[in-house]
Amino acid sequence: MSQTPALSTRRNDLDWIRVAAFGLLILYHVALVYAPYDWHVHSAHTFGWLHEAVLITNPWRLTLLFLVSGAALRLMAARRTPGRTLRDRAERLIPPLIFGTLVLVPIQSWIEAIDKGGFDGTFIDWLVHEFGPTGLSNGVPVNHLWFIVYIAVYSLVAVALMTRPVLMARLEDWLARATAGWRVLVVPIAYLIVIRIVLFPLFGITNRLSWDGYNHFLSLGAFLFGFLMVRHEELWAGLERHRRTAAIIALIALPIMMAQAAHPGGATWFGIPRAIIFGIDQWAVIAAILGYGSRYLRQASGPALRYLVDATFTLYLAHQTVLVVAVWFIRPANLPAPLEAAALVGITFGVSLLIYEIVKRIPLIRPLWGLKPLPDTVVRPRYARRRRLLIVGVAAPLLALVAVLIGVATYPGFDHARQYLSELGGASAPMPLIFNGGVFIAGLMCMAAGVGFGLAIHGLTERWIVASLTAVVFILAGIGLAVSSLYPWPDPRHMAINLGLGIQIAPLLLLWGLWSHVDLRRLKVFLFVTFVAMAILTVFTHHMILPGTVNPANVGWWERAYAIILVGWVGIAAFALERRLKTHADRHSPDDLAP
Length: 595
Fold this sequence. Notes:
Elements: H1 12-32, H2 50-53, H3 61-76, H4 82-115, H5 123-130, H6 133-137, H7 146-162, H8 165-178, H9 183-198, H10 200-203, H11 213-229, H12 233-241, H13 243-262, H14 272-296, H15 303-330, H16 337-359, H17 384-409, H18 432-461, H19 464-486, H20 506-514, H21 521-541, H22 555-586
Helix pairs in contact: 1-3, 1-14, 1-15, 1-16, 3-7, 3-11, 4-7, 4-15, 7-11, 9-14, 12-14, 13-14, 15-16, 17-18, 17-22, 18-19, 18-22, 19-20, 20-21, 21-22
């Protein structure tokens, strides 16, 4: 048989497919919030048409992931012994499985138990119940982490095959002959139809390792197929050659499958016609994706792919817990379904990515989130830490804006003309935690950004005094925001937010620090205009000229304008300085390193 030598441990096309499949998984779980299925939590909105719509991805998505996971294991094991492969798999899978089971899943389970009326205690009470004798007697739920359990067990099977190279070679040869030419479409479809007809009525899909016969024949079969066949170029050539045929078959099968699911008579003849169409759609979609991916994505690498490949496991671990918590907090606002769904998608992806960005920088907890340990010596580009702190400064205003928008959306009748933004976190707000939590995190980010601003000024000008003063102003502003969120309006301690007003002089401090830097003319003009605009608003707000211009009938709008300038300029300035630091660093040789 013709095989590609094991010169690489990666396939770009398979990496892209895995990333896309996990992205679809997150969207699928958001859809389940609105679907007529028994999922963990539900929106107040339910759409019956999702019963059929989920069939767009439901038959093939996880099967494809298992196939790609098996292929990835084989590529990873190309230069490893079975023992080393097993050890590497255990180090990568077991810590996140234990961490997720003990920390991430209980959060979901507690919210689900309260939501469905089966529990009314605190989270600590739930942990005691879940991991006490009564809870353990019913098993420990793993929720979405069942996928890791199955991958771990299937990896054991694959490693066992590695210890029998003759048997593995025979299986590869048999599979290669069985899927040669047009059989690459027909044989897998026939297998999927048979197990669907014979095993699915007996087992269904339980996601319980001990009783999931159909799922094992499906998922383990896909895993081993990917493991055994990933290096056989004839298979990929056949998938590429038949990719259009597979896509056409899938497009024909999908509406038929949806009609069978929607029609009361769709399960007639013992469900055999339905199983046939299901199996056809299942492999046709997978074959089309693999064929088109192999054809067009093998050479499609780059920083975006490397970032997403590294982030995918962490996003998978975090996303369902983030989604369940987001539904729990957002649902009482009774938002329109499109706005609510968009918020859930944005929060799930955004918070999961934020978790990844945080944990990847903390060596101690990287393995708990599915990330490899950092190498002993990491060479950092010049100004890497300062630039990351400035990126935090770019993100902080965006987070504050999101907190305000969601806070307004959850506060029916909020009067922008007469009410202050602080009231979104006050006692009269329906969901003050959203606003206060966002402001608290934005305050912490403001402090980090202040350090970044100070270090950036020093890196560009070597002026320590103005750099230190700039950092102090931002840190005080961040403290003011964080403390004000801990003591919501009208608590007198909420006025600690006035510490944040010191940020008005930050543009002047930056101008002072950067005055001699000739390459930042546009940034300096922007800082000057920002300072003048804030000064004008301050003069009007405090009635120093034209008394009464700002009054109870319009004070809210003045505050909005003031807040947009006060907070928004920080993100723009941080972005401009981060880009300038990158340009400055690129002018130095790679050996000239600095934090």
